[in-house]
Amino acid sequence: MKEIVFENVSKIYDNGGIGLENASFAVEKGEFVFVVGKSGSGKSTLLRLVSAQMPKSEGTITVGGVCLSAIPKGKLPLFRRQFGIMERELGLLPDLDVRGNISLAMYATEQPFSRIKKRVTQTMATLGISHCAKQYPNQLSGGEAARVMLARALVINPRILVIDEPTANLDPDASWDMMCLLNELNRMGVTMIVASHSRELVTIMKKRVITLVSGVVVADEKNSIYSSKAMDVFAEKRVYNERRQYQNLRGGLPN
Ligand SMILES: Nc1ncnc2c1ncn2[C@@H]1O[C@H](COP(=O)(O)OP(=O)(O)OP(=O)(O)O)[C@@H](O)[C@H]1O
Protein backbone atom coordinates (compact mmCIF):
# COMPACT_ATOMS: atom_id res chain seq x y z
CA MET A 1 0.00 0.00 0.00
CA LYS A 2 1.30 3.42 -0.93
CA GLU A 3 1.78 5.66 2.11
CA ILE A 4 3.17 8.79 0.42
CA VAL A 5 2.77 9.81 -3.22
CA PHE A 6 4.39 12.86 -4.83
CA GLU A 7 3.26 13.70 -8.37
CA ASN A 8 5.17 16.46 -10.16
CA VAL A 9 5.62 18.39 -6.92
CA SER A 10 7.49 21.70 -6.90
CA LYS A 11 8.15 24.15 -4.10
CA ILE A 12 9.07 27.71 -5.01
CA TYR A 13 9.70 29.94 -2.00
CA ASP A 14 8.38 33.51 -1.78
CA ASN A 15 11.80 34.90 -2.76
CA GLY A 16 11.78 32.79 -5.94
CA GLY A 17 14.19 30.16 -4.55
CA ILE A 18 13.50 26.64 -5.80
CA GLY A 19 13.23 24.13 -2.95
CA LEU A 20 11.97 21.20 -5.04
CA GLU A 21 11.38 20.83 -8.76
CA ASN A 22 8.88 18.47 -10.37
CA ALA A 23 9.45 15.59 -7.95
CA SER A 24 7.54 12.33 -8.44
CA PHE A 25 7.94 9.25 -6.24
CA ALA A 26 5.93 6.95 -4.00
CA VAL A 27 6.80 5.46 -0.61
CA GLU A 28 5.23 2.19 0.49
CA LYS A 29 3.82 1.71 3.97
CA GLY A 30 6.65 0.51 6.24
CA GLU A 31 9.41 1.50 3.82
CA PHE A 32 12.73 3.09 4.90
CA VAL A 33 13.89 5.83 2.55
CA PHE A 34 16.99 8.00 2.77
CA VAL A 35 16.99 11.42 1.13
CA VAL A 36 20.51 12.56 0.30
CA GLY A 37 22.10 15.52 -1.45
CA LYS A 38 24.48 18.35 -0.86
CA SER A 39 23.61 21.30 1.34
CA GLY A 40 20.78 23.30 -0.24
CA SER A 41 19.70 20.45 -2.54
CA GLY A 42 16.18 20.36 -1.09
CA LYS A 43 16.21 17.58 1.53
CA SER A 44 14.52 19.59 4.28
CA THR A 45 12.05 21.03 1.78
CA LEU A 46 11.02 17.52 0.75
CA LEU A 47 10.65 16.44 4.39
CA ARG A 48 8.54 19.47 5.27
CA LEU A 49 6.29 18.91 2.28
CA VAL A 50 5.82 15.23 3.19
CA SER A 51 4.79 16.13 6.74
CA ALA A 52 2.42 18.92 5.65
CA GLN A 53 4.48 21.60 7.42
CA MET A 54 4.23 23.89 4.39
CA PRO A 55 2.22 23.97 1.18
CA LYS A 56 3.62 22.86 -2.18
CA SER A 57 3.58 25.28 -5.11
CA GLU A 58 2.66 22.77 -7.81
CA GLY A 59 1.72 19.11 -8.14
CA THR A 60 -0.11 16.68 -5.87
CA ILE A 61 0.92 15.18 -2.52
CA THR A 62 -1.07 12.28 -1.10
CA VAL A 63 -0.47 10.79 2.36
CA GLY A 64 -2.35 7.69 3.47
CA GLY A 65 -4.68 8.14 0.51
CA VAL A 66 -5.54 11.74 1.48
CA CYS A 67 -4.67 14.57 -0.89
CA LEU A 68 -3.05 17.31 1.24
CA SER A 69 -4.67 20.15 -0.71
CA ALA A 70 -8.10 18.76 0.19
CA ILE A 71 -7.49 19.14 3.95
CA PRO A 72 -9.06 22.30 5.41
CA LYS A 73 -6.47 24.50 7.17
CA GLY A 74 -8.15 24.00 10.55
CA LYS A 75 -7.82 20.22 10.27
CA LEU A 76 -4.09 20.22 9.41
CA PRO A 77 -2.82 20.04 13.04
CA LEU A 78 -4.83 16.84 13.58
CA PHE A 79 -3.62 15.43 10.27
CA ARG A 80 0.01 16.15 11.22
CA ARG A 81 -0.30 13.91 14.30
CA GLN A 82 0.38 10.86 12.16
CA PHE A 83 3.93 12.19 11.69
CA GLY A 84 6.73 12.09 14.20
CA ILE A 85 9.15 14.87 13.29
CA MET A 86 12.77 15.06 14.38
CA GLU A 87 14.68 18.05 13.07
CA ARG A 88 17.52 20.23 14.28
CA GLU A 89 15.38 23.36 14.47
CA LEU A 90 13.08 21.72 17.01
CA GLY A 91 15.57 21.84 19.89
CA LEU A 92 14.84 20.59 23.41
CA LEU A 93 13.42 23.06 25.92
CA PRO A 94 16.23 23.88 28.38
CA ASP A 95 13.94 24.41 31.39
CA LEU A 96 12.28 20.99 31.20
CA ASP A 97 13.87 17.68 32.12
CA VAL A 98 13.87 14.77 29.67
CA ARG A 99 10.51 13.41 30.84
CA GLY A 100 9.01 16.90 30.57
CA ASN A 101 10.37 17.45 27.07
CA ILE A 102 8.96 14.17 25.84
CA SER A 103 5.62 14.53 27.66
CA LEU A 104 5.07 17.96 26.10
CA ALA A 105 4.68 16.37 22.67
CA MET A 106 1.72 14.37 24.01
CA TYR A 107 -0.24 17.16 25.67
CA ALA A 108 -1.80 18.25 22.37
CA THR A 109 -3.25 14.75 22.00
CA GLU A 110 -5.43 15.48 25.07
CA GLN A 111 -4.97 12.04 26.58
CA PRO A 112 -5.34 11.39 30.32
CA PHE A 113 -2.21 12.17 32.37
CA SER A 114 -1.80 8.54 33.49
CA ARG A 115 -1.77 7.40 29.85
CA ILE A 116 0.79 10.07 28.91
CA LYS A 117 3.03 9.02 31.80
CA LYS A 118 2.86 5.35 30.82
CA ARG A 119 3.56 6.04 27.15
CA VAL A 120 6.51 8.35 27.96
CA THR A 121 8.01 5.71 30.29
CA GLN A 122 7.59 3.08 27.59
CA THR A 123 9.16 5.28 24.89
CA MET A 124 12.16 6.16 27.07
CA ALA A 125 12.72 2.44 27.69
CA THR A 126 12.49 1.63 23.96
CA LEU A 127 15.12 4.25 23.19
CA GLY A 128 17.39 3.38 26.13
CA ILE A 129 17.13 6.74 27.89
CA SER A 130 15.18 5.83 31.05
CA HIS A 131 18.25 6.70 33.14
CA CYS A 132 18.11 10.31 31.84
CA ALA A 133 14.46 10.98 32.78
CA LYS A 134 15.29 13.64 35.37
CA GLN A 135 18.23 15.22 33.57
CA TYR A 136 18.03 18.58 31.81
CA PRO A 137 19.13 19.03 28.16
CA ASN A 138 22.44 20.66 29.13
CA GLN A 139 23.27 17.54 31.19
CA LEU A 140 22.95 15.14 28.23
CA SER A 141 25.58 13.79 25.86
CA GLY A 142 25.04 14.45 22.14
CA GLY A 143 23.86 10.88 21.62
CA GLU A 144 21.41 11.06 24.54
CA ALA A 145 20.02 14.41 23.38
CA ALA A 146 19.46 12.96 19.89
CA ARG A 147 17.59 10.02 21.44
CA VAL A 148 15.42 12.37 23.48
CA MET A 149 14.54 14.26 20.28
CA LEU A 150 13.69 10.95 18.65
CA ALA A 151 11.62 9.95 21.70
CA ARG A 152 9.68 13.21 21.40
CA ALA A 153 8.88 12.34 17.78
CA LEU A 154 8.01 8.74 18.60
CA VAL A 155 5.93 9.19 21.73
CA ILE A 156 2.77 10.15 19.82
CA ASN A 157 2.91 6.74 18.13
CA PRO A 158 3.25 8.09 14.58
CA ARG A 159 2.71 6.07 11.42
CA ILE A 160 5.48 7.96 9.68
CA LEU A 161 8.77 9.27 11.11
CA VAL A 162 10.28 12.23 9.26
CA ILE A 163 13.85 12.74 10.39
CA ASP A 164 16.26 15.47 9.33
CA GLU A 165 19.93 14.69 9.94
CA PRO A 166 19.61 12.24 12.86
CA THR A 167 23.37 11.92 13.23
CA ALA A 168 24.34 15.59 13.00
CA ASN A 169 27.07 16.34 15.57
CA LEU A 170 27.23 12.73 16.80
CA ASP A 171 30.44 10.73 17.04
CA PRO A 172 30.72 7.54 14.91
CA ASP A 173 29.53 5.19 17.69
CA ALA A 174 26.51 7.30 18.61
CA SER A 175 25.71 7.75 14.89
CA TRP A 176 25.74 4.03 14.33
CA ASP A 177 23.57 3.43 17.42
CA MET A 178 21.10 5.98 16.11
CA MET A 179 20.88 4.29 12.70
CA CYS A 180 20.36 0.88 14.35
CA LEU A 181 17.59 2.38 16.43
CA LEU A 182 15.89 3.82 13.34
CA ASN A 183 16.18 0.44 11.66
CA GLU A 184 14.58 -1.21 14.69
CA LEU A 185 11.67 1.27 14.70
CA ASN A 186 11.21 0.66 11.00
CA ARG A 187 11.01 -3.09 11.66
CA MET A 188 8.19 -2.36 14.08
CA GLY A 189 6.27 -0.98 11.09
CA VAL A 190 6.98 2.76 11.13
CA THR A 191 7.53 4.30 7.69
CA MET A 192 10.83 6.22 7.70
CA ILE A 193 11.92 9.20 5.63
CA VAL A 194 15.41 10.20 6.72
CA ALA A 195 17.55 13.03 5.32
CA SER A 196 21.23 12.38 5.85
CA HIS A 197 24.64 13.78 4.95
CA SER A 198 26.40 10.67 6.20
CA ARG A 199 27.89 8.93 3.19
CA GLU A 200 29.20 5.95 5.19
CA LEU A 201 26.02 5.24 7.15
CA VAL A 202 23.69 5.56 4.17
CA THR A 203 25.89 3.20 2.20
CA ILE A 204 26.09 0.61 5.01
CA MET A 205 22.33 0.62 5.61
CA LYS A 206 21.50 -0.49 2.04
CA LYS A 207 18.09 1.16 1.95
CA ARG A 208 16.25 2.98 -0.78
CA VAL A 209 18.03 6.27 -1.52
CA ILE A 210 16.48 9.32 -3.18
CA THR A 211 19.22 11.68 -4.39
CA LEU A 212 18.55 15.39 -4.89
CA VAL A 213 20.56 17.95 -6.85
CA SER A 214 19.32 21.56 -6.85
CA GLY A 215 15.79 20.43 -5.95
CA VAL A 216 15.63 17.73 -8.64
CA VAL A 217 15.35 14.00 -7.91
CA VAL A 218 18.28 12.66 -9.94
CA ALA A 219 18.30 9.09 -8.62
CA ASP A 220 15.89 6.85 -6.73
CA GLU A 221 17.25 3.38 -6.10
CA LYS A 222 16.64 0.45 -3.77
CA ASN A 223 19.49 -1.08 -1.72
CA SER A 224 21.52 1.87 -2.75
CA ILE A 225 24.65 3.73 -1.79
CA TYR A 226 25.28 7.42 -1.30
CA SER A 227 26.84 8.28 -4.63
CA SER A 228 28.39 11.70 -4.90
CA LYS A 229 29.44 10.74 -8.43
CA ALA A 230 25.78 10.61 -9.55
CA MET A 231 25.34 14.09 -8.09
CA ASP A 232 28.42 15.50 -9.77
CA VAL A 233 27.57 14.05 -13.20
CA PHE A 234 24.07 15.48 -12.98
CA ALA A 235 25.26 18.87 -11.76
CA GLU A 236 27.76 19.11 -14.62
CA LYS A 237 25.09 18.16 -17.18
CA ARG A 238 22.68 20.67 -15.77
CA VAL A 239 25.19 23.51 -15.81
CA TYR A 240 26.17 22.55 -19.38
CA ASN A 241 22.52 22.52 -20.53
CA GLU A 242 21.81 25.84 -18.85
CA ARG A 243 24.87 27.36 -20.55
CA ARG A 244 23.69 26.04 -23.92
CA GLN A 245 20.20 27.46 -23.43
CA TYR A 246 21.63 30.81 -22.40
CA GLN A 247 24.00 30.92 -25.34
CA ASN A 248 21.24 29.87 -27.75
CA LEU A 249 19.12 32.72 -26.49
CA ARG A 250 21.98 35.11 -27.08
CA GLY A 251 22.37 34.06 -30.71
CA GLY A 252 24.11 30.74 -30.97
CA LEU A 253 26.95 28.91 -29.36
CA PRO A 254 30.44 30.29 -29.70
CA ASN A 255 33.00 28.08 -31.46
N1 LIG B 1 12.28 29.45 3.96
C1 LIG B 1 12.96 29.54 2.80
N2 LIG B 1 12.86 30.66 2.05
C2 LIG B 1 13.51 30.75 0.87
N3 LIG B 1 14.32 29.79 0.36
C3 LIG B 1 14.46 28.66 1.09
C4 LIG B 1 13.80 28.49 2.34
N4 LIG B 1 14.13 27.26 2.82
C5 LIG B 1 14.96 26.72 1.92
N5 LIG B 1 15.16 27.55 0.89
C6 LIG B 1 15.99 27.30 -0.30
O1 LIG B 1 15.57 26.08 -0.89
C7 LIG B 1 16.70 25.32 -1.31
C8 LIG B 1 16.68 23.96 -0.63
O2 LIG B 1 16.88 24.17 0.77
P1 LIG B 1 16.78 22.99 1.83
O3 LIG B 1 16.89 23.59 3.19
O4 LIG B 1 15.58 22.19 1.53
O5 LIG B 1 18.09 22.15 1.47
P2 LIG B 1 18.83 21.00 2.30
O6 LIG B 1 19.27 20.00 1.30
O7 LIG B 1 17.97 20.52 3.41
O8 LIG B 1 20.07 21.78 2.88
P3 LIG B 1 20.93 21.46 4.22
O9 LIG B 1 21.56 20.10 4.01
O10 LIG B 1 21.95 22.55 4.25
O11 LIG B 1 19.99 21.50 5.38
C9 LIG B 1 17.93 26.16 -0.99
O12 LIG B 1 18.31 26.84 -2.15
C10 LIG B 1 17.46 27.11 0.08
O13 LIG B 1 18.14 28.34 0.02
TrEMBL record:
Protein name as catalogued: ATP-binding cassette domain-containing protein
Record InterPro entries: AAA+_ATPase, ABC_transporter-like_ATP-bd, ABC_transporter-like_CS, ABC_transpr_LolD-like, P-loop_NTPase
PROSITE patterns linked to this entry: ABC_TRANSPORTER_1, ABC_TRANSPORTER_2
GO molecular function: ATP binding
Tree of life domain: Bacteria
Keyword ATP-binding appears in the UniProt entry: yes
Entry keyword annotation includes RNA-binding: no
Keyword tags: ATP-binding, Nucleotide-binding
Pfam family, one: ABC_tran
ABC transporter domain ranges (all copies): 4-239
Membrane-traversing stretches: none
Annotated organism of origin: Ohessyouella blattaphilus
